[in-house]
Amino acid sequence: MARFYITTSIMYANARPHVGFALEMIQADAVARYRRLMGDEVVFCTGTDEHGTKVMRTAEQAGTPTQEFVDRVAAEVGTLARRLNTSNTDFIRTSDRVRHWPAAERIWRELVARGDLYKRSYEGYYCVGHEAFIKESELENGLCPLHKSTPERLQEENWFFRLSKYRDDIRKLIESGRLAIVPETRTKELLNLLDDAEDVSFSRPAQQLPWGIPVPDDPTQTMYVWADALTNYISVLGYGTDEARMAFWPASVHLIGKDILRFHAMVWPAMLISAGLEVPRAIFVHGFITVDGQKMSKTLGNVIDPLELLDQQPADVVRYFMLREIPSTEDGDFSWKSLESRYVSDLANGLGNLVQRIATLIETKLGGTLTIGSFDQETEKILEDLRDTKGYHAAFADFRLHEALAHVWTRIGIANQYINDREPWKQEGEAQALTLRAVAAMVLHIAWLLQPFMPETAEKIGATFGVALTETIRSDARVSITKGSPLFPRPEKK
Ligand SMILES: [Zn+2]
Questions:
Q1: How many angstroms does the Cα of residue 324 sit away from the middle of ligand 1?
Q2: Distance from Cα 54 to the centre of ligand 1, integer Å
Q3: What's the mean pLDDT when you consider all of the chain?
Q4: Which residues contact 235 (CB under 8 A, 6 or more apart)?
Q5: What is the mean pLDDT of residues 117-136?
Q6: How far is the C-alpha of 76 from the C-alpha of 81, rounded, in Å?
Q7: CA 237 to chain centre
Q8: What's the 150 CA to ligand 1 centre distance in angstroms?
Q9: What per-residue confidence (pLDDT) applies to 493?
Q10: Multiple choice CATH, 337-480, 1.10.730.10, 3.40.50.150, 1.10.1530.10, 3.40.50.2300
Q11: Per the confidence metrics, is the pTM higher than 0.70?
């Protein structure tokens, strides 16, 4: 059995979970479930990034002790994962002194041993929104171009990490494809950034930043939040504590948002090389979500809270919409209107109607049972095309999840078309039975394909037909209908 290790980024714990993080979790879950379907042993991790100035200040403003504040955010992220029905096998928190801190301390010591950490005084602009120093040349009218806030001018003594030393190693890993960055536009972006990669500040004075992991053997300093947070990907495997699960390293893929590419594709690989560890196999970069074509912002009042979204829609509907409407590697738009229209056309009228129609026909025309059996040549040809999964697997291989889903919906269209052409309600005897057997075989194949995306729906379809889902449904499979409530009830007309 092959091992597959997939991670989301860990969510920065300064606010309630946001919809972009929900998207990342859903994408990661679809891939994790797909790999399990392919027979891999999958470790799938998510969690929360809980240190840093921004978290400390947000907790202060809320009048809550910092630990209590991050406990609450971590619980909300856990709730979000559960309600999205994600199949993560682990959840890591950077404030966890038992599981996470020893790993961060161990990698720090490895970097020191390699001579890659050195102390110097530094003066620069620190953007709290970024939790990073930004170059003066990157400022726009004195403001951080992303956060539109004035960075803090800091002069302090910090530990620095020799990132510049690893430029060539990282370039080779990326250019050879050993470290894949998906999509390719991000590969180019990263290679450009790499040219000017300078050493990075890896600690802050403990007086300025008491909320974090103390630098080993130098308690006057606190580890820089990124040095600490990136380590989550190995602390969760027991690095520095109980390393049996380090057999899953290197990660098969890290899923991240485009704003944190350089930390994951430069700083993290450099840390790993320095510590004598392998770099991840792939970094998959998704885009951002806009709402009605606009950037989400508190000022505009258009922020989508994923937990509120899940109060209104079942997990599978949210999962379907996010994975279908938002191209996996690009920015995508959320609107209630497109959610409603996808629901009606794709789910209620497309998939839901197909399953409902065929189950009812099998009940009324065949007494609720049938054996799949064999087919005429024309039907056999249609089934063969429908079961051609090359496009589906290729889409997964390249993280084009929306295309894998489109592949499934093409098949729903074929099955609905087949019923409409054959009109089984007008047929009789053997001809009628053949149509129903064929559509049952189609629906069961479709349900198999749906599992990574809409696990609950796939399971319900299997239960309706009384058949365990397999990639190719056997000709001796016996269908026995047990109808439940409709999969996707049509919204009431207003
Ligand atoms: Zn910023």
A1: 31
A2: 11
A3: 95
A4: 92, 99, 100, 101, 102, 103, 104, 241
A5: 90
A6: 9
A7: 19
A8: 9
A9: 64
A10: 1.10.730.10
A11: yes
For the stretch 16-28, pLDDT in tens is 999 999 999 999 9
Paired strand residues for 41: 3
Place of tokens 């001579």: 115
Q: pLDDT digit string (tens) for 206-262?
A: 999 999 999 999 999 999 999 999 999 999 999 999 999 999 999 999 999 999 999
pLDDT tens column, 61-102:
999 999 999 999 999 999 999 999 999 999 999 999 999 999
pLDDT digits (tens, 9 = 90+) for 318-359: 999 999 999 999 999 999 999 999 999 999 999 999 999 999
Residues 31, 279 contacting (CB under 8 angstroms): no
User: CA–CA distance from 117 to each of 202, 228, 346 (Å)?
Assistant: 8, 14, 55
Residue 19 CA to ligand 1 center (angstroms) comes to 20
Q: Is 134 in a helix, a strand, or coil?
A: strand
Question: CA-CA distance, 26 to 84, in Å (whole number)?
Answer: 7
- Looking only at the bridges linking them, the beta strands covering 41-49 and 3-7 are parallel
Tokens 């409407």, located at residue = 325
Using the mean position of ligand 1's atoms as its centre, give its distance from the Cα of residue 241 in Å: 35
* Number of helical H runs and strand E runs in the chain: 19, 19
Rounded Cα gap, residues 198 and 368, in angstroms:
69
- The pLDDT of residue 146: 87
Residues with CB under 5 A from ligand 1 (ion): 127, 129-130, 144, 146-147
Q: Residue 256: which of 100, 49, 53 has the closest Cα?
A: 49
Residue 117: phi and psi, rounded to 5, are: -120, 130
Peptide bond into 250 cis (omega under 30): yes
DSSP 100: T
Say if residues 185 and 328 touch (Cβ distance below 8 Å): no
Alpha-carbon distance 396 to 399, whole Å? 5
Pair of tokens at residue 197: 């990669």
